[in-house]
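quick one before i forget lol
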Amino acid sequence: MKILLIGGSGNIGQRILKEALNKGFEVTSLQRNVEALTVQHPNLTVIKGDLLNEAELPALLSKNDVIISAISPASGLTPELFKKANEILINSLQHQADKRIIIVGGAGSTEISPGLKLMNSPIMDSLPAEWKPAILMHAEVLELYKNSGLNWTYFSPASHIEAGERTGVYRLGTTNMIFDANGESKISYEDYAVALVNEIENKQFPKQQFCIGY
């Protein structure tokens, strides 16, 4: 299995990279700044590229079976450029229908109660104002993939995600946010990465959004 990972040096991307390499996958990490990724492994190739370069992207995608996009507005892209990068990625895959793409998504589009998405709930009022454009843009990008005709999977994290322990124990759902016994929605970067890489093999959520929590 050949994987192209976009954003392999980010908080989530670096954990996905580690899991994929440990599974024995051949991984190519597409980086705007190749020096940002210091990992070395026999199954890892690091190449320089930019999602915003529409001319070069199709050729970079063509040699891989699965594309993982781990970019986000928090990785140096404005929300508008984040959307543009995904539009270019979708356009570049239109003539490569055999490819599967898995998107590291946002939590805002998951429902905290029936019919009520987090991004439309009072929770948004308690969040820093600078977070809100990115949360809303993640939801717009989900709609782009839903309408793309591609073989996509959109993976939403729990409401709270941070560095932590790799337990390999978690629960998965579709569009309903997962809460623990204390009413909290949380997951570690490490367990999110475990679940994403497992989805490559399990193919449980084709053309669907799914989410994770403890």
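fyi The first strand starts at residue 2 and ends at 6.
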